[in-house]
Amino acid sequence: MLKYELTAILVSFNKLPSKEDIEKIFNGGINNICVVNNNINFSEESFLSSHNNIYFLQNKNIGGLAGAYNKALDFVYENIKSSTHIVFLDDDSDFIALKKFIDSQHTQKFLNNNERMVMSPRYIETATQMLGRCVELRRFYYKVFLPTKKNLVKVSFVINSFSIWPIKVISEIGEFDTRLGIDHIDTDFCMRAKALNIPIYINNEIKFNHTIGKRIFYKFLWLDLQSSGHHYFRKEIIIRNTRILIFRYGFKEIGFLFLCIVRICYEYLSVLVAEKNKIKKIFFMTKGLFTN
Hints:
Blueprint: E1 6-12, H1 19-27, E2 32-37, E3 54-58, H2 64-79, E4 85-90, H3 98-103, H4 105-112, E5 118-125, E6 134-137, E7 142-145, E8 152-155, E9 164-166, H5 167-173, H6 185-195, E10 200-210, E11 216-220, E12 223-227, H7 232-250, H8 254-274, H9 278-290
Parallel strand pairs: 1-2, 1-4, 2-3, 5-10
Antiparallel strand pairs: 4-9, 6-7, 8-10, 11-12
Helix pairs in contact: 7-8, 7-9
């Protein structure tokens, strides 16, 4: 008998998940799904009534993605109290790998023992087919690595999509930061988990396809890199939020400070080498460095 109950939170902005997506999620081992509509102009939800254990919430993009997560979590706390773990899902992910992830021996041990930790599979960027790099923070530096063994890998960060968080862990950390809105809300959440000594692991046995922006593969010197391809407004938010996190954590965690500086430089490099509308994007990114 399973000792856990999984509730997925899926925030949708441009479109609701298809019936096939919903089936993939339930077939993956999810017990409940909270779909949060985060687009004020979209309210079509008629097909949801045919599913049990699926809940539809309206957020109208209040507080961005962070606000949508907070609304869903409040709903879960009040209405799905049997939930033991939250699985964050993104409508830019392919849910076909969800079942393999949840059925994995590493994930099952984590879930059934209700361990105080966080787990996620490894993502593959859909457009470039590049594996997500793993990052581990140390006090005065950080390391980036590409593990090859099919085991658990301790990291400092995971993206929201497909990550599993025990309800008790989320309660310890608190709400997502609506000031950040969308970009780096997962980075902030992971840093807060680190401060509470909550370990984060990648289950490197499982990979899933995930799309971030409109990524573009490019080469710089001997390196294989990828640019996010985000709109100039998102570029501004990314840089702005990175700056906010530098002042929030960077002077206590020197390794994180270096990581953020490299991230900002990487964004500029990617625009200059691989993206269009360079002048406009550089202008808005520089604006994000200095303004709120």
